[in-house]
Specification:
Layout (H helix, E strand, L loop, with lengths): L7 H18 L3 H7 L4 H10 L17 H12 L3 H21 L2 H12 L4 E5 L15 E4 L6 E11 L6 E12 L5 E9 L5 E6 L10 E11 L4 E2 L5 H35 L3 E2 L2 E2 L4 H29 L5 H26 L9 H9 L9 H11 L4
Parallel strand pairs: 1-4
Antiparallel strand pairs: 2-3, 3-7, 4-5, 5-8, 6-7, 9-10
Length: 386
Amino acid sequence: MTDPTLPAEYEDLRKAVEAFTREEVAPVIGDYYERHAFPYPIIAAMGRMGLFGLPYPSEYGGMDGDYFALCIALEELARADSSVAITLEAGVSLGSMPVYRFGTEEQKTRWLPELCRGERLAAFGLTEPEGGSDAGAVSTKAGEDPATGNWVINGSKSFITNSGTDITSLITVMAVTGREPDGRTELSCVLVPSGSPGLIVEPAYSKVGWCASDTHGLTFDNCRVPAENLLGERGRGYAQFLRILDEGRIAIAALSTGLAQGCVDESLRYVKDRSAFGHKIGEYQAIQFKIADMEARAHTARLAWRHAAGLLGAGKPFKKEASIAKLVASEAAMANAREATQIFGGYGFMNEYAVGRFYRDAKILEIGEGTSEVQRLLIARSLNLA
């Protein structure tokens, strides 16, 4: 979209999520963060608001919205806390979106209603211990049992968000299912319900940030699921996850923008109260310039993700713009978190202040769903430089 003013329906959504974040998330999320506890009551409230169903049609329990609406919600949530925002982002753009994009009607009808209501969460099992940025280097294997036709999965996944909560219902797993005629690895996606025999959810990671979100490694030890749990066409797993990641980069850009803007919000409040050398520190030009740069970064990041989301919504190519948005916004988040911590001084190093959480949360945004280096590579390729 070219008009920076949000249409009424988006602005109403933004205000509703802003109020929810201010009144129900910000006052309590620090306690969850400190305890490394998953905020089930907050997630349930988000479900009742319809946030998990924003981009889906009402026939599956959704809100008849779009991806742009999801990103609006993500930005507003991340202005207060990224753990809550990433739970929504991963639950929708990585969790339920593959089912909606590629699933059969039966799969959509079975899984989407509970996911859209936020009563259950889904996860996307892509990253592996030896994979990292080389997401196509998949070693997890899914073979067909000749006696039953069921899939038998063996392997492991790393850093999987929403994979071990009490309300996790489904994990989409990308696995090697054979060889293409030209000898290349055949990759397919298989839906693995929580509690499937042979699915082992490893202990939760001890993370630097996102401490109120859920992240586990997964092990598949002869994990068996029905043949009909194949997601989409066999051998199309790589193309499926590329589409999901392209869209997800816009969502992460919106989340990053929220964190960047949250740093501005917190700094503005602080510099009006904090005094040094007989003056409010907001009166010093050095501080003013820092906050001006922070606001410029957040503004630029917002324009970038809105442009990419507008292209996606219009059915136009958006891959390059998604990478630009993700790169610009994630680096804005990291820079703003650093500057906000500097403005707060010693208090910025204390977890009781939001900027302490922002600083811990910002770095992963330059890594997850494609590192900054990967985004630069994709942008260069789009310019025929590689």
